[in-house]
């Protein structure tokens, strides 16, 4: 997934200064952002006042969009450094291509996990023949300093662990560990991502880690998270300090729980790059513009995305400013 803003704002994030050690209930307001030719997304991270949740540093939620007569998602080749991308669908398909030669269709409840590391480029599109509805989330995970220059890689996991019980909950483990089950996806920090399906009338308490900070992204239906009633497409930041989290559902509903240890390092995020200094960002932009370092995505019918101009002011890491 790319940030297609032609004038992207540099985002400074990381550090523990703005992480509440106590539970909070902070509703995050999304921004409506165009994605490709016919798709709009709700951008929930980064947003004003909240930059990260654990190592999760970017959250786009889209759909349900009716694309029977539309091209659907069409994101041309673009570069990444210093992060992982997570493709997560509730409906539809996304065809992933990258500069490693990967070609993979990702379907609902399957994990498409790309580790950019030192440099990769990729494209994402709805296949030419696609189902009529597109609904999902695109997520980024910041890599810690010791791993941010790893070799790029792509993983596809169609069979993820599911935690079930007799209480109306089915939890698919996207990344990390949840309630004793572990995702096969590669991780580099203590982190969790879980897709939670709740049946009508469910009233459950999830086990959570008190040292993790969490947020809940609602995908469908009406869910009450720790007493806060949430509509689809909203995200509630929960802070740290809980050992369990209460969920209630009025009708069948779904949400994604994101969490992890607060990301201690300070970093700079601009366009599709996560780095530590403005100089690294400028060098990555130069390399993409000149055709160096990021390789070539073969098979996409269209030109790569041009890099937007850098801002006039220097890019500096400043932590979790609010």
From TrEMBL:
SUPFAM superfamilies: RmlC-like cupins (SSF51182). Residues 45-141 form the Pirin N-terminal domain. InterPro entries: Pirin, Pirin_C_dom, Pirin_N_dom, RmlC-like_jellyroll, RmlC_Cupin_sf. This is Pirin family protein. It holds the Pfam family Pirin. Residues 194-293 form the Pirin C-terminal domain. Transmembrane segments: none annotated. Residues 299-322 are annotated as: Disordered. Belongs to the pirin family. CDD domains: cupin_pirin_C. Signal peptide: none annotated. Residues 305-314 have a biased composition (Pro residues). It comes from Actinomadura yumaensis.
């Amino acid at each position: 997934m790319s940030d297609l803003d032609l004038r992207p704002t540099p985002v400074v994030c990381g550090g523990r200064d703005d992480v509440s050690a106590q539970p909070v209930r902070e509703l995050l307001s999304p921004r409506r952002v165009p994605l490709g030719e016919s798709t709009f997304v709700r951008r929930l991270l980064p947003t004003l006042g909240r930059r990260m949740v654990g190592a999760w540093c970017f959250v786009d939620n889209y759909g349900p969009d009716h694309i029977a007569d539309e091209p659907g998602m069409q994101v041309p080749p673009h570069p990444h450094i210093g992060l992982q991308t997570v493709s997560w669908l509730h409906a539809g398909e996304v065809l992933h291509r990258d500069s490693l030669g990967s070609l993979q269709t990702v379907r609902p409840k399957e994990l498409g996990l790309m580790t950019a590391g030192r440099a990769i480029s990729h494209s994402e599109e709805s296949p030419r023949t696609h189902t009529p509805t597109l609904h999902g989330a695109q997520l980024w995970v910041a890599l810690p300093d010791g791993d941010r220059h790893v070799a790029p890689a792509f993983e596809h996991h169609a069979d993820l662990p599911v935690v079930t019980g007799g209480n109306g909950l089915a939890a698919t483990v996207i990344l990390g560990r949840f309630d004793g089950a572990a995702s096969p996806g590669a991780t580099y920090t203590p982190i969790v991502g879980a897709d939670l399906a709740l049946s009508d009338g469910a009233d459950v308490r999830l086990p959570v880690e008190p040292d993790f900070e969490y947020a809940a992204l609602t995908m469908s239906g009406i869910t009450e998270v720790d007493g806060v009633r949430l509509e689809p497409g909203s995200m509630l930041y929960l802070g740290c300090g809980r050992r369990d989290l209460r969920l209630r559902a009025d009708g069948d509903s779904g949400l994604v729980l994101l969490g992890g240890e607060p990301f201690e390092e300070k970093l700079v995020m601009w366009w599709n790059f996560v780095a530590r200094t403005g100089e690294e960002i400028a060098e990555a932009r130069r390399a993409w513009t000149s055709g160096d370092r990021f390789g070539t995505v073969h098979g996409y019918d269209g030109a790569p995305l041009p890099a937007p101009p850098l801002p006039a002011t220097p890019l500096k890491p400043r932590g979790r400013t609010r």
